[in-house]
Structure formats: structure tokens, C-alpha cells
Amino acid sequence: MPDLKTVNINGQEVPTTEPDVVSAVVAEIKSLGDNSKANYDELRKTHEQLKSVVDNYGEKMASDIKEQVTKLSEDIVTRQTALDEEWTKRADSIETSLQRLPNNMTEQDIKLEKEALDFYKAAKVCSTKSGVSFKDMSNISPNLEEYAEYKKSFESFLRMKGDQRNLMPEQFKSLSVGVDPDGGYTVTPAMSSRIITKQYESDPVRQLAAIETITTQAIEWMVDWGQAGWGWESETEAGAETDTPTLKKKRIPVHVMYAKPRATQTLLEDSGINIQNWLADKVASRFARGEAAAFVTGDGIGKPRGFLSYANGTDYGQIEQVNMGAAAALTADGFIKVKYSLLEQYLNRGTWLMARGTVADAMYLKDGTGNYIWKPGFDKDSQATILGLSVKMSTTMPAVAAGALSVAIAYWKEAYMIVDRLGITMLRDPYTVTPFIQFYTRKRVGGDVVNFEAIKIGKIAI
């Protein structure tokens, strides 16, 4: 090993065999900070100016003020783009500096050397009870050829579930580089079971609504929607016959959700992750998003019925759609009208449901006294509110547009019911599509509005 030199990084002397390379990296990082600060300060200044203009003028902006807001917004976007480009440019420069290594090593050689060095260091730590000195760690020089052979043999060892008896002699010899007593088997060579998963948003209706679990194909109950007739009668004159209240029957059937993903038997045997569990998680996530969307817009044919599928009105089987006033736009007065269209019994227990973009638009609205109708939560356990009622965001609720049903408010426990017949079941079928294993997955669920007075829809004016 060559003598270690040092380079100063943030006031500390750090050992290195390549001071020129490290110095170049440090210089690039310092340059990044110096050049970005001025741009960032201007970005923050412009953002404060934009907030000030919006706070002072709100929705009633004159054309010259709107032009000012537009220019400020464009300046913010431009500066943010410049910062992003500068970070990318500097990151590329740093990467170039890091790759100025001796001996004309390829990128693959550099990666292998780093893996091998990390492996040997970790194995050294695992095999030493009394601790490892900095000098010992600095003197480690990995054998790249030996490590590459070990890496290949280790993968074979894992596929045999840790059984060494079926290894070839040369594989066993290569595997001895990371022999278990020295901690080698506890240090996997650059192998991870982590899967980077794309995240999807889902409607929160299941979190809000009432949930009933049944053991049949549907649930039924009687609904007392009518009222008794009445009147006044005089001392000498009998009253006429009055109306007799009637009962209605409500029925919510369950519907089948299904999926049929496949995987080969070889993949199930050789994969470094549990493919069956992974598929189960993916299907369950997709089921959750599918049923959540149906609770909002489903037509009730072969799927749950969503609350947006009902006609406008105040009779049984109808949901009142409250006109929010302004054409193709949100207003604070519109939100007030929708909120107070709910009966008093449900009003203070209501929750708003709308798309993310609708919530963003509502954040700019002010009431008649100049207060924003949207309020943030005071801590991590509090929820944001609009006019004092909590807000939930939906991926299925329509965006703000002329005639769109963009806002819903309800006491959801009373308004909507979800019916579960059977949780997710998976049938493992190795015969139908050999050599594939088919995982037939099912879930039975239903949903419908049960109290039409406990929910109101805000409709954007045309």
C-alpha cells in the first residue's frame, strides 16, 4: 500500500491515496455552494413578493396586478430550473473528478474494486472481536479476481439454500474466500432484496365510510324515509285521514374483483425475493385502488355504486348538487353554500373530499373578512381544514371545470357503507398454464350510499 496522504475536508484531515482527485471533488462541491446561494436567495425573495401580492389582492386582481403575478411566477420557475440545471452540471463534474483514477481502470473495474473493498472490510469487522484499527482497515488490498469468483459461487450457494454439498470443487474453493467463521457469509456481495416501488394515490373512502362484514352475497335492511301525515281538527269536526308513513328496503350486493398474475416455477425457485408475496402485495394494492375509485364513480353494475352516480335532487335515491356560484371556478362563497346545505345533525361531523388540485385552488380563497378558508394542521396529528371541517384528497373526484362535481362533503359514516364478504384469497394453480404458476386472486366487496341526507355535492357552475 502507498503512504497515506491527507486532504482537508470541512476542517478535518482525511487520509487518501489520491489527494488530487479528492481535492478536485472538494473544489467542485465548494463551487456548487457558492454559485447556488445567490440564485437561491433571489428565488426566495421572488417567492415572498408573490405571496405579498396574492395576500393583498386575492381574487380581485386588476389586469396590471395579474401581469405582475404572472411575471413573478415565471421568475420563480426560471430560477428553480436554473438551480436544478446547476446542481446537475456540478454533480456531473464531481462524478468526472471521482472517475480520474489511475491505471486507466474501466467503470466496471472501479465498481468491482469498490464492492470488493467494502466486502473485505465488512468481513474483517465481523471476524474480529477486539475491534479493528484504522491502520488495519487502510492496509486492506482486495484480490479482485478472487472476489469475482467468490461472488459467482455465493449466488450458487444461495440457490441451493445454503447447502455446500452440491457445489463443484472449484466453487467450494472460491466460496472459502468468504468462509462463514470469518464472517464472510454474513456479508452479501452487492446483493439487495429491496424493490423500489412506484407509489400510487388512492381515494380514502374506506377510511371514512361505515364498513359491514357479511357471510352472504348481499345485505338488506329497512329504511324509514317517510313521515306521518297530520293536521288540526276542531271541537265539532273530525279531521280527515292522514298519510301513513312507509318503509323502503335497501340492498347492497357484493361483487367479485379478480386478478390472474403468472410466474414461472424457475423464477419462484431462483429469485432472491419472495415472488409470491410480492405478487400478493401488488394485487392487494391494485384491488384497493380499484374499489376506492368505484366507491366514488362506480355505476353499481358488477361493481360498487359510487356517490357521484346519483341524480341531483332531495328525494330518496337522489343527492343534492349545490351550485357553487362562479363559472368554471372555485369561490369561498361556494364552499360556504355547500357546507351549510348539510343538516345540522351532520354538519359538524362532515369531511370534505376533493381532488388534490382542487385543494390547492381552495388554499388561495378568502372569506369576507380576509381570512383564508383553508387552514393547515398545527402538528403531525392535526388535519388541514376548510371552513373548520377536515379535508381528504381523492384521485377520482373530477378536477375543477364547468359543470364538474368537484367537491363532496358528508358525514361519511352515516352516508356511505362498504360491505365486505370475503377478504383477498389466492389460489395457487400449477397445472393450467404449465410451466407457469398462476395465482388466481379474488375479493368480494360492495358499496353504496345509505343516507342521502348526510351527503352533498358541490357543482361548479357552467
Characterize the structure shown:
With 462 residues, this protein is α+β, with helices and mostly antiparallel strands. The chain has three domains: 5-100; 109-186, no CATH class; 194-230 and 240-462, 2-Layer Sandwich (Major capsid protein gp5 fold), CATH 3.30.2400. Helices cover 39% and strands 21% of the residues. The chain has 13 helices and 16 strands. The strands form four sheets. It has a seven-stranded mixed beta sheet. Strands 3, 6, 7, 14 and 15 form a five-stranded mixed beta sheet that branches. Strands 1-2 form a two-stranded antiparallel ribbon. Residues 99-103 and 177-189 have low confidence and may be disordered.
Strand-helix topology:
Blueprint: E1 5-9, E2 12-16, H1 19-57, H2 63-98, H3 107-127, H4 134-138, H5 144-159, H6 169-175, H7 205-208, E3 210-213, E4 218-223, E5 248-253, E6 255-259, E7 262-264, H8 265-270, H9 275-297, E8 321-327, H10 332-339, H11 344-347, E9 351-355, H12 356-362, E10 374-375, E11 385-386, E12 389-394, E13 405-410, H13 412-415, E14 416-429, E15 436-449, E16 455-461
Parallel strand pairs: 3-14, 8-16, 9-12
Antiparallel strand pairs: 1-2, 4-5, 6-15, 7-15, 9-13, 10-11, 11-12, 13-16, 14-15
Helix pairs in contact: 1-2, 5-6
Structural class: alpha+beta
Q: What is the helix tally? A: 13
Q: What is the CATH homology-level superfamily of the largest domain? A: Major capsid protein gp5
**Main CATH class of the largest domain:** Alpha Beta
Q: Give the neighbour order of strands across the main sheet.
A: 8-16-13-9-12-11-10
> How would a textbook summarize the main sheet?
7 strands, mixed
Looking at the overall shape, the CATH architecture of the largest domain is 2-Layer Sandwich
Number of strands: 16
Estimate the mean pLDDT confidence: 75
The stretches of 5 or more residues where confidence is low (pLDDT under 50) are 99-103, 177-189
Strand content: 15-25%
Distance between the termini: 78 Å
The backbone outline, from C-alpha atoms, is: flat
Q: What integer value in Å does the Rg equal?
A: 33 Å
Helix content: 25-40%
SSE arrangement, N to C? EEHHHHHHHEEEEEHHEHHEHEEEEHEEE
How many domains comprise the coordinates?
3
Assign the CATH topology of the largest domain: Major capsid protein gp5 fold
